[in-house]
Design goal:
mainly alpha; Arc Repressor Mutant, subunit A; 64% helix
Length: 150
């Protein structure tokens, strides 16, 4: 698909990449506002997804690399920030002393709950805008594309 503009987007580019970026920005803005309201403002946006990956079962940097699709160096930088701010803690791995496990702290758990609630609210807004059937199709399509790129 060629990059075009469309009147419904205010003349902004209308490629899939551009539209996905705009939708992602809506999620990010909603999560940032919810975290601010909960007294948890200042969390870097990559930290949202890293905390969610830990809550979903990732336990170390290697698991986060796979879950998030970024480099180990990028993960390390975000983990350092989240550890310094008290969202995650590093623990020695009980079976392999060379590895370090990452665990959510109480603040990290609370933050994940705020993020989840914000994501659910944002998706309810999307469903209200496009209808449940269109939303379900969109999510199913994105799931296929995400798996194909993994």
């Amino acid at each position: 698909m060629m990059l075009t503009t469309h009147p419904s987007t205010g003349g902004e580019p209308r490629s899939a990449a551009w539209l996905l970026r705009r939708v992602n920005a809506r999620y990010g803005t909603a999560v940032a506002a919810a975290l601010e309201d909960a007294g948890l403002g200042g969390l870097p946006r990559p930290g949202y997804w890293l905390l969610m990956a830990l809550a979903a079962g990732a336990t170390d940097a290697s698991g986060l690399v796979g879950a998030m699709g970024v480099t180990k160096q990028a993960i390390s930088k975000v983990v350092d920030t989240l550890a310094a701010e008290g969202y995650v803690a590093r623990r020695p791995n009980e079976t392999d002393r060379r590895r370090t496990d990452l665990v959510l702290t109480a603040t990290g758990d609370r933050t994940v709950e705020v993020i989840r609630a914000s994501l659910r609210a944002t998706e309810r807004t999307f469903v209200a805008e496009v209808g449940a059937e269109a939303w379900d199709t969109t999510v199913a399509t994105l799931a296929v594309l995400a798996r194909a790129g993994a």
